[in-house]
Design a protein that fits this description.
The chain is of the alpha+beta class. The protein has 3 domains: 35 residues; 80 residues; 92 residues, Chitinase A, domain 3. The chain contains 9 helices and 6 strands. A 4-stranded antiparallel β-sheet has the order 3-2-5-4. A two-stranded parallel sheet has the order 1-6. Strand 4 and strand 5 form a beta hairpin.
């Protein structure tokens, strides 16, 4: 009888331990599952919007709000990864630094050995546009407030351009520019102005062109032809660009893989139409 009681007690103890372990395991599983959920709720969104307003003095539009939320998600994932890797030291004020540490680690892991010359040659040919020197213009202009004034100036300049730099209205920028590409001109005067000027013939003062500043009578002094780049002298630059491209692609792939480990839970947000 005593042996049966002892055996029953032992069996109950074993089942108690097993049941406890099961409960402990289930609790740890639920905690781990909860750690993979990033909750986006109204208080969080309001906080992000308040931070944006403090920096820009306006509310974000829908696209900017999406970018703010995506930025928070990225930071939260990287912070959790930093904690998982043991990079945190219980200092809650270094969230951003922890996220940056993980990004730096990801960048270091993507650094590859220098590619061979053949790979660089292919990359150079595929991206030749960024190495070839584009057509450029050396040009000068006289500024006017209205198109009518500009037309009068053009007629006068084509008769006699002496002292041209003192004619027309004062202009806040330069009156003469050397070797400007269409992209340079677009940044300076706008895309429509740049496209029209590159269609203009040299030699004479051309038809008035409009920019955001006003009206311009322009003369092209020299049209410099585009020049095709040679691979050899640029090989170091090409190698840097190639590695930068490879690093960006690897970082993007690593981020996609990292984000795939997390479930983003968007909770209902009421009261904000954006």
């Amino acid at each position: 009888m005593q042996n049966r009681l002892r055996k029953l007690a032992q069996d109950r103890l074993i089942w108690f331990v097993v049941f406890g372990l099961l409960l402990f395991g289930a609790d740890r599983w639920l905690q781990a599952r909860e750690q993979q959920v990033i909750k986006i709720d109204l208080p969080l969104v309001e906080k992000l919007v308040a931070q944006w307003e403090g920096q820009t003095e306006r509310r974000p539009n829908a696209r900017e709000l999406d970018a703010l939320i995506e930025g928070y998600i990225r930071e939260e994932i990287l912070v959790r990864e930093a904690a998982r890797l043991g990079l945190d030291n219980d200092d809650i004020i270094i969230r951003r630094r922890l996220a940056q540490k993980v990004e730096f680690m990801m960048a270091d892991e993507t650094v590859e050995a220098l590619p061979d010359r053949q790979a660089l040659q292919r990359f150079f040919e595929e991206n030749r546009a960024q190495y070839d020197a584009p057509e450029t213009l050396t040009w000068r202009h006289v500024f006017a407030d209205t198109e009518a004034e500009a037309r009068q100036l053009r007629a006068a300049l084509n008769r006699n351009e002496d002292d041209w730099q003192n004619k027309g209205k004062p202009f806040m920028l330069n009156r003469q520019y050397a070797r400007q590409s269409e992209l340079d001109l677009s940044r300076l005067m706008g895309t429509q102005f740049a496209a029209a000027l590159f269609q203009q013939e040299a030699e004479n003062w051309g038809v008035p062109l409009q920019s955001a500043f006003g009206w311009h009578v322009v003369k092209i002094d020299t049209r410099h032809a585009a020049q095709q780049a040679a691979f050899g002298p640029l090989i170091e630059r090409v190698a840097r660009d190639y590695q930068k491209m490879q690093r960006q692609q690897a970082m993007a792939a690593a981020w996609d893989e990292l984000r795939g480990r997390y479930e983003i839970e968007l909770l209902p947000i009421e009261g904000d139409g954006q």
